[in-house]
Amino acid sequence: SDVGSQKERVVTEEEWLQKWEMGNIGFHKEQGHPLLQKYLDVLLNGRSGLRIFFPLCGKAVEMKWLADMGHSIVGVEISEQAVKEFFSEHSLPYCEEPVPEISGAKMFQSTSGNISLYCCSIYDLSSSIVGKFDGVWDRGALVAVNPRDRQRYASLMINLVEKNSSYLLVTVSYDPNKHKGPPFYVPESEIQSLFG
Ligand code: SAH
After folding, report:
1. Which of 37, 50, 65, 167 is most buried, most CB within 10 Å of its CB?
2. Bind-site residues for S-adenosyl-L-methionine
3. What confidence tens digit (pLDDT) does each residue in 120-143 have?
4. Cut 0.90: pTM above it
């Protein structure tokens, strides 16, 4: 019963674009996320020069942190405003190009080449377009996905990672009977059934 009230809820792409336009982005952490610092070793597992994926990336400053450590970052975000704010807030020059495989999509890439942000829906991506990743930072991503799309999201993510990859997932634990979110409540049992 607990997650029943959230199951049918949908946040549309237009609503997300509007949040960015209105500056309604309480989820953005200017200082970055303390849990990434805490579990950085788990993500990297002693490896360097990794390809790290940021699903539903917003303008997460952790992309800059990891790029500065020598990793190569790929993100996906439907709001072009968010993507542009990321580059301008870090004073990173970038170029912009169409993505031939996805109509209407654009790819924004730092001139240095180590940060590539796809501006499109995550559901438009596949490993043939973006390749596979050694690491994933999933914060505000699975928990932002509409409950009806979780299975599709998880299958895609499983497809986008290499065998020996590390996937850091941040969820929020609360009583869904008392709070309707955001973000969506994703119980541990569901994470087990989605990712195994
Ligand atoms: N991970 C970021 C942002 C979390 S908020 C952070 O930690 O700050 C979720 C983000 O997903 C929003 O910026 C929203 O615009 C974007 N988004 C929502 N649905 C999406 C979709 N289907 N494809 C790509 N991005 C999406």
Report:
1. 50
2. 16-27, 56, 77, 121-122, 139
3. 999 999 999 999 999 999 999 999
4. yes
